[in-house]
Design a protein that fits this description.
This protein has seven helices and 23 strands. The chain is α+β, with helices and mostly antiparallel strands and about 350 residues long.
Length: about 350
């Protein structure tokens, strides 16, 4: 046996001894642990509104509110995440359907949640006793460990988008959940947080975040719409973006979730950029397409799509369009990991996404 053969045998024995003691040598996996750029498991993906709505309406007939989880929710499960019901590695996205005169009972949990209303009327979400009316385009907050339930007193269903930091909290092994003793908590006030904070609660998207949650629970569409119009008038297009913020200190509405609204002018396209952290987009109004890492996703009102971390993203509007987005940017910023890049030229489209 040569010296080289002896070294090879010794090396194999060493690796076996390390594995037997639950040890792993860094020299065999530094490329996997420290890639030069992020390689997210999250895939760019899109869910069509007409498909989601049809399945949610079928679920009404078969799944009462009381059947598991206290909610009738369809989670947007990213196919890159091994069957987990997550939209990205840090964000949960879903649509929730509440039928006429239904009530989803109160509970609370450590993952924070936001609700963005897609359509319907006559519904309110009660958050720690404050009944927050819900209308299309409104943003409603249910922060970490706040009691919350949903009530539909109307004759029509309501559908809204749920955004949670559930995957992130699960990764930290810090999830707690508790059901309320009764069905619904008593309503102590209605839209009380808006009376205390009548300002718009919106500012430039590029600002930093902090660790306090917003005491303002409802951000009405009318205020958001005016802010977008003003931002678009100032910029002259092709797009404008605003961020929902804590009215006390200008921080993100929730420490782990960033909420944004974007408006893109008809026939125009945005700058190509990429950022650390993922984002889920809900098309509130309009039609167009987004190119995410070379894949074209055509969307219309109600569709939802996700952009993974460090993916190149560009939006183009066929008609003037408004998109809501929930991101994990506050987490990435708080950890000092936020980066962004902008590109002058449009991306090369290499394929078109065909939704199932």
């Amino acid at each position: 046996m040569t010296a080289s053969d002896t070294m090879e045998v010794g090396y194999d024995e060493l690796c076996g001894a390390l594995a037997a003691k639950d040890l792993q040598p860094l020299w065999t996996q530094s490329g996997r642990l420290m890639p030069q750029v992020p390689h997210p498991r999250t895939l760019p993906w899109l869910w069509k509104w007409h498909t989601m709505l049809a399945l949610a309406e079928r679920a009404v007939e078969l799944v009462p509110i009381t059947r598991g989880g206290d909610r009738r929710v369809l989670a947007l499960a990213n196919p890159g995440l091994g069957g987990m019901p997550y939209t990205s590695t840090t964000l949960w996205g879903a649509i929730q359907y509440l039928g006429p005169h239904e009530s989803a009972p109160a509970h609370r949990h450590t993952p924070s949640a936001i609700r963005f209303v897609m359509n319907g009327s006559g519904v309110w979400t009660t958050v720690d006793g404050d009944a927050c009316d819900m209308h299309p385009g409104d943003l409603i907050l249910t922060p970490n460990w706040a009691w919350h339930d949903h009530t539909n007193a109307g004759d029509k269903p309501m559908v809204w988008f749920d955004g949670l930091d559930l995957p992130f909290v699960a990764h930290l092994e810090s999830i707690f959940f508790e059901r309320y003793e009764g069905t619904n908590q008593p309503v102590l006030a209605r839209n009380a947080s808006e009376e205390r904070f009548p300002g718009p609660g919106i500012r430039e998207r590029a600002e930093k975040t902090s660790a306090e949650r917003s005491p303002l629970l409802r951000y009405p569409w009318e205020t958001t719409d005016r802010a977008l119009d003003a931002a678009l008038a100032d910029s002259g297009g092709p797009a404008a973006s605003v961020t929902f913020v804590n009215p006390v200190n200008g921080a993100s509405v929730i420490p782990t979730l960033g909420c944004e609204m974007h408006r893109v002018v008809a026939g125009r396209r945005t700058t190509v950029d990429r950022r650390t952290g993922s984002a889920i987009y809900v098309v509130y109004a309009g039609s167009g397409a987004s190119v995410i890492d070379g894949m074209r996703f055509e969307w219309a009102t109600g569709d939802i799509f996700v952009a993974p971390s460090w993916s190149k993203v560009e939006h183009e509007a066929m008609e003037t369009s408004t998109l809501f987005a929930v991101t994990d940017r506050p987490i990435v910023e708080a950890l000092g990991l936020y980066r962004e890049e902008f590109f002058d030229s449009a991306q090369l489209v290499t394929g078109t996404f065909e939704p199932k």
